[in-house]
Design goal:
Distance between the termini: 33 Å
Number of domains: 1
Shape: globular
Oligomer: single chain
Structural class: mainly alpha
Largest sheet: 2 strands, antiparallel
Strand content: under 5%
Helix content: over 70%
Amino acid sequence: MTYEIMDAFAAVLSPTMLLLVALGALLGTLLGATPGISATLSIALLVPVTFNMPPVAALVFLGAVYCGAIYGASISAILINVPGTPSAVATMLDGYALTQQGKAGTALGAAVTGSFIGGQVGVFVLLLGAPLVAAWALNIGSQEFFWIVIFAMTSVGALGAGSVIKGLAAAALGLVLGTVGTHPISGTLRFTFGSSALYEGIPIVVGLVGLFSISQVMKLANDSGEQQGKRISEVGSLLPGVKAAWKHKLTSVRSAVLGTFVGTLPGAGADIASFIGYNEAKRTAKDPSSFGKGNVEGVLASETANNGVVGGSLIPMMTLGIPGNAVTAALLGGLLIHGLIPGPRLFESSPDILYPFIISLFLANLAFLIFAFTGLRYVARIILIPSSILAPLIASLTMVGAWTFRSSITDLWLALGLGIFGYILTVARFPLPPVVLGIILGPLAEENFGRAMQIATARDMSVISYFASSPISLVFIALTVLSIGVTVRREIVQVKTGKSTYGEFDKS
């Protein structure tokens, strides 16, 4: 692995790669800071831009966008009390309070420093941990992989915000959409309605831009435009926030570790990690009552945790092909488009692509740190772009992306239909990420279940007994049952208390 890392550094430090890292981090920061454009939407919009790039260049660019978008969301949360993505909601609690006190620079400095620390810790764990997980995953067969996928899908409902029953229903709907096309074992056509464009199923890019982008355009069209009446406070010096990060270094380390761990869990995104980091900081603070009133430690904890998710979330995606959240689902689409099949053998077959990608994430975190200290006052202006401009711009980029994939009119209509469908789901408060994950993971689950049935038949065993013969399968079956149990219990508690925890999971 040492030689691969050394070669990766040499590849990433080329002028072209450095430019892609800088451009991706800047675009991610700008898009993440814009209310209404989440990290997921940022990736979905920019995946088509990478069609003609070499695989390593495409991944480096998209990875930098991911890092920048997660950090950029904190800018609007702190300055105008409008989180760019759900992961910045916890940051907003103390960040905007500091802005009202004339300490916007302190909050922004703590946010960017925490984002940098959390991002670097997460990527370091990714660099060391992903190859180990991949080596372990080589022992996984069809029966184990099927249950890993099922566990990932049920975790979306159990861990996501909002009605957990709706989360599971959305995941099931996604799995059904994933069956469109040719059956992987028998070759039977399903739900194609006579269209040859659907023989290979719903294209991932079309699904991404349709469900996330077009539905978001419709929401922006109905936006009240509250941020348009807001003014940006004077940013000021970021150095007090940097000093605060050093003062609360234990909080930084703890939040980074928590965020990285949460990132490895299927269904747990940056929004969940940010609140866990925030609550832990509040629980261990000398003055918990100051949180929510302008405590810089709250900003530091939430931002460090949600950026730690970046590295952690890439571990299951790269080693098992299981995107743990909506952003990595979009990023997985980028890998598949370039012919890279995530899984345990990816590190053996494409180390010249994966290691430069991982190393570039270190540089991406450094890039947004540099941008923050050199031009944040200019970057911050983007948060006031009116929805009347954003909506048609996103719509144009979406349709161009859908067309570019296969130059097919059918894809345009399919993207539009999925966008309308996605908008209806969001109005009904069904989360979108489980649907997208189902479209991606559904074919994997079906294919591996079919293989498991064939192997069980060849061994003169029932499918149930074949699943029970694997300790790994039994573990994930137990985790799936536990996940569903947590889901049901949480739903019962919500019904009894009359409180809904539905938030912005569909934007994460």
